[in-house]
Amino acid sequence: MRIAVVGMGFVGLVTATVLADRGNTVTCIDINEKRIDWLKKGDLYIYEPLLRELLLKNKTRVDFSSDYSNIKGNEVAFICVPTPTVDGRIDLSYVRSAVLSAKSVDSDVIITVKSTVVPGTASALSSHIGRDIVSNPEFLREGNAIDDTIHPNRIVIGGKNSDYLEKVKRIWEFTGAPVILTTNENAELIKYGSNSFLATKISFINEIANLCENIPGTDVATVAQGMGMDHRIGKDFLRAGIGFGGSCLPKDTTALVSYAKERGVELKIIKSAIDVNNERIEHAVEMIKKELGNLNGKNVCVLGISFKEDTNDVRESKSLELINALMSMGAKIQAYDPSVKEVDGVEMVGKIEELTQCDCVVIASEWKEFETNAIYEKSKKVIDLKRVVNIQTHPTVLRIGAYNAKD
Ligand SMILES: NC(=O)c1ccc[n+]([C@@H]2O[C@H](COP(=O)([O-])OP(=O)(O)OC[C@H]3O[C@@H](n4cnc5c(N)ncnc54)[C@H](O)[C@@H]3O)[C@@H](O)[C@H]2O)c1
Asked: Has 301 been annotated as catalytic?
């Protein structure tokens, strides 16, 4: 097929690359001309495992442009533009603008919204442009995005026009994943329901972690392992830490709560999940203060800047929130991250070995390379906020979610 993908961020670029790899011809559109120039030169501003190699392999089938007129002649246009929250409410202006631009150059192209949008968005835009729009929400995880796109758990396609639904379904047939064909509104809410549930799972285990820190003999990692073996619960998203960050869970939970409130519905559980999440950094700072006392003038080495491992995405990074909190108390920060090399006001080093001796090393994300022994040469005090350290080999490390005898 000839397919257009609008918005060259994590979702758009991965979608375009995988579709090209499946033999489609893909036209990529972004209004950010700088990004398009980089992509034409093969420069990726996104770090995502396997993306560079796959894009290179399929470069003859992918075309980059900031000119919407290139959408003309494509059968389907996937809209993958941002949907940030502004003052707690979703900002749909990017989606609206992309849909209107696509429609204005080709009134036959099947406009398919991959961006996360609140229920009613596609239907309202359909009425506005006088043509059905398909909803096809995206569930990929950054850091695993290629594999998630090729092997999704499910494909959700919403809309009214059965020909359009069938066409979009055909595009994703290669995945072999079960398909839910439904209304636009259901498709839109499945995405919010999923992300809000995942966020709730994280906050849930973080509350259990708080409890474990107060009960001798408990450790949240073991409790989560035991809980997760129950298939009704599942082990994913049950890792205690400093809370959820990134470009999706914080904004999606907030947007859903305010969307529901406007309809007179209070989402108490999701609101609590957000509240618990908002307390995680204060909790982590208290742990560090217990170890170091007054933070003024203390040297702290932080491992991990991006919002999670295997990505360079720093949007809503909890690690950055932690660093800012520590700096506001007078701590001096040195940091290392495999994919993030510059952070305003923070001294970054190129590898763990280059960190200088410090009062404390804080592990703030789950990169595999943080399992090295090199970190114990930097300080006697190591605080594991993401539970990456093996307890058997390093029993003295202070771990979030575990009872600490010193408390
Ligand atoms: N990042 C994720 O892990 C993820 C996962 C699932 C769903 N989503 C959702 O997918 C959507 C896109 O997320 P993302 O992280 O890829 O965004 P992003 O911010 O990384 O990239 C969006 C791109 O869209 C471009 N853009 C903005 N307005 C445009 C317009 N009118 N026309 C063309 N291009 C335009 C921007 O220049 C940018 O390059 C969001 O709704 C997000 O919630 C994201």
From this structure: no
CATH number of the 2-182 domain:
3.40.50.720
| Alpha-carbon distance values, 185 to 113, 131, 232, 404 (Å) | 12, 16, 27, 48
Candidate list 28, 212, 248, 358, residue with the active-site label: 248
Residues of the chain with CATH 3.40.50.720: 2-182, 193-399
Phi, psi of 56 (to 5 degrees): -60, -45
- CA–centroid distance, residue 84 to ligand 1 (Å): 9
- Specify the pairing of strand 85-86 against strand 89-90: antiparallel
How many C-beta neighbours within 10 Å does residue 216 have? 9
193-399 CATH, one of 3.30.70.141, 3.40.47.10, 1.25.40.180, 3.40.50.720: 3.40.50.720
Which is the closest atom of ligand 1 to the Cα of 8?
39
Q: How far is the CA of 107 from the centre of ligand 1 (A)?
A: 23
299-303, strands of its sheet edge to edge: 347-348, 332-336, 299-303, 360-363, 382-384, 398-399
SS3 content of the chain, % helix, strand, coil (to 5): 45, 15, 40
**Structure tokens, 92:** 């749909």
pTM over 0.85: yes
- Ligand 1 centroid to residue 168 C-alpha, Å: 20
Residues with Cβ within 6 A of ligand 1? 6-12, 29-32, 35, 80-83, 94, 97-98, 114-116, 138, 140, 142, 247-248
| Averaged pLDDT, groups of 10, the chain, 407 residues long | 97 98 98 97 92 96 97 97 95 98 92 98 97 98 96 98 98 98 98 98 98 96 97 96 96 97 98 98 97 96 95 94 97 96 92 95 94 91 94 90 76
Phi, psi for 4 (deg, rounded to 5): -105, 145
